[in-house]
Amino acid sequence: MKSIGIIGFGSFGKFLAEQLSAHGEVKVYSASGKQSQWATSLQNVAECDYVIPAVPLEAYEKTLTELKPFLMPTTVIVDVCSVKVEPMQIIANCLPGQPVVATHPLFGPESAKDSLKDHVLVLCPDQSDVDQLQIVEKFAMNLELDVVKMTCTQHDQEMATVHGLTFFIAHALKDMGLHNQKLATPSFKKLLALAELEKHHSQDLFLTIQNGNPYTEAVRQQFVDEATKLNQQIKPKHN
User: Fold this and answer.
1) pLDDT at 237
2) What is the distance, to the nearest Å, from the Cα of residue 124 to the centroid of all Cα atoms in its chain?
């Protein structure tokens, strides 16, 4: 890769800048003005060979609209959003004709802080530029990432359970104050680990996964229905 522009400098934007600095010239624009060794203007970021929006889904339309006047026709938008159908629709509406590669890194600052090796990168060929997809895939394989290909719809359908349900349960566990217990079994420690992991996820990421995926609500509701049914089965009956 040549020059890589990143929009947003939250935990994931910072993680991307750190990981990609060894593979190309990295430039970062932060709308909130966060400073770093990569900090520059939006125009400078737009002139990079690749631009990665590392912003919440709700900020996509505003961010891409501001980016559009500065983009070169050859600049490739590499989407890394945790959901795929909605952001790709927004990109198509805001930046028609711009080459795009749809991806989802199934890792982040916590899970891949020591190494990228064997972590999963999802690529969605149905919404990606063919030539640029091959370049990104080769780059990912050189990083020893495990590349999985599927359509944006297939991705969202699977991630509604893999991410949506997991984050929903973890968020609930986090808010229950489980760490106040003095006793712990091995299985309970797994619940604690799940609740602890959710502490490192931003509220923006949580809402993107819950609201930005059209399939997540049904999975959440199925879990709530099953939990309610189970609770009714074991609840003591009052005479």
Assistant:
1) 66
2) 14
Tokens representing 153? 């719809």
d(CA 81, CA 197): 19
Q: Is the pTM of this model over 0.85?
A: yes
Q: Are the beta carbons of 2 and 27 closer than 8 angstroms?
A: no
pLDDT digits (tens, 9 = 90+) for 203-212: 888 999 999 9
Residues 6+ apart with CB under 8 A from 230: none
Q: Which residues pair with 147 in a beta bridge?
A: 121
* Amino acid, res. 221: Q
Contact assessment for residue 127 and residue 150, using Cβ atoms and an 8 Å cutoff: no
pLDDT-flagged residues of the chain (< 70):
1, 237-239
Looking at residue 72, the DSSP 8-state letter turns out to be -
| Amino acid in the structure at residue 178 | L
Dihedral sign from CA coordinates of 33, 36, 37, 38: negative
